[in-house]
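Handout, section 4.2: multi-component inputs.
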Amino acid sequence: MGQDTILSTFGPAYREVAVGKIATLATQAPLLLECGAEIASFPLAYQTYGTLNAEKSNAILVCHGLTGDQYAASDHPVTGKPGWWEMLIGPGKPIDTDRFFVIATNVLGGCMGSFGPKSVDPVTGKPYGLHFPVVTIADMVRAQALLIDALGIHQLFSVLGGSMGGMMALAWATLFPERVFSAVPIASSARHSAQNIALHEIGRQSIMVDPDWHEGRYLEAGTFPVKGLSVARMAAHVTYLSEEALHRKFGRSLQNRDQLSFGFEADFQVESYLRYQGAAFVERFDANSYFYITRAMDYFDLTQGGLAQRFKGTKTRFLVVSFSSDWLFPTSESRTIVRALSAVAANVSFAEITTDKGHDAFLLDEPEFAAIVRGFLRGAADKRGIT
Amino acid sequence: MKTLRPDLRAIADLVPPGSKVLDVGCGDGELLAWLAQEKQVDGRGLELSQSGVNASIARGLSVVQGDADADLSDYPAGVYDYVILSQTLQTMRHPRDVLENLVRIGKHAIVSVPNFGYWKNRFYLLFFGRMPVTRTLAFQWHDTPNIHFCTLSDFVTLCEETHITIEKRVYVDDGGAPSHFQGRSFLANLLGEQGIFLLSAGLL
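Output:
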């Protein structure tokens, strides 16, 4: 199905790290993207946890958010940090790897081994950069479906994801309804809001104005848009939190000083924290991937032609979850999904978790959230006959 | 399976095995779980409180967090065999709209209402001159979620006005057992602590 790992470079130092596993997909027939381009024999990086049962009925696909990757429940090879959903995935955890076979991929357009703008164009011998085709959430999901085919799995027991991952769960349930027994879109939306598109544009513009970006050809120039990408991350990071969370964490506390500097150093702890977030981000993420993935989210809109219409006749069991202090993907977005599902009498559960942690709550230790995911999967597994 | 509260049991008895049920105001899912287990019902719930929703989903039920006053209009007509509203109508802002939605969404609706005309409530008001605080009406007037009280006779009148057919009614006493007096009599309205009604949309 492909090789084990692939070497990729990260950050301004072009640090080489092996990432994987790699599946080579669309080897027989190309995958047609929504933009009209066709891609063939492309790599998709993934990780698995747990064991696929004999009936192949216990597979769960977890989908990552904007800057996540396939390392959902194992240490990240670049940062060395634990997986982004280790609080949910593992033996005895809500997504129980003693019971389920968990698959996590890096999305198409990503930068952790999957086919993306960092990949080398065999025609020119140079990285694609902005010559990489624009991909959509549906394209990402179709690429994942090829991997699921390659693993010999017909129906996924569940597709879960937060934020963009939730969009992917919704796309799975509408593109391949018969292949999705249950779907869990978390802190997500059926269409990216104008406000969120605007926020993404701020991120992209801050990269574009960095001279080291070189119109997307920084890898050829041997530079890296460190400033632009870190500012994009700083702006985005604020949107993942909430006023209460920021206040609780930092308040107006000063950083390494006891009085104001009357200058523009990082006087406040919150400034220093954001600078750190920006600096850490550029070590692991690719600026061009940031363009492609934010664009895919911007283009996402299941509401055209009526959202309820998309779910008509669905047999998939849904759990929709939102967080009370999430202003990036507010509860009203989740309610829109629930309303459409109710309108076609779909099997849907919905809960809003009360928390002050903002959008990031789906990545954090929220006991109520974990209990709901556990209960939902347990109930659905009983229905599916998974032991 | 743990035994159901007597008034919930009286509702459960009206639901045939294998039906498709929506429980509006399902609380922690006690009734739905019992119906799924004992009667193989395909159940869904709607519940306002986060604690109730969380408890329901965590036990494997399909429950949506929402407000019956606002959200019932999202549900299409006739998709459920039975829509249940237990001890909740009096908390609705628009009980009449809710009632009409119940018989629209369900082929049948099962509604239980506490009887404000129950003799103990009348006694309390008459002799103490205070709003009744009892086991079923367990709130002080200023912090009660119960904003639209009715007597059993009032409820029957509302059904008539909205052309809703009462297919069956069971008035129960405060032990949860069927009251000795049923029907539209003065005594039935005096001695039934709550009424459980099996309803359907009237033919117009």
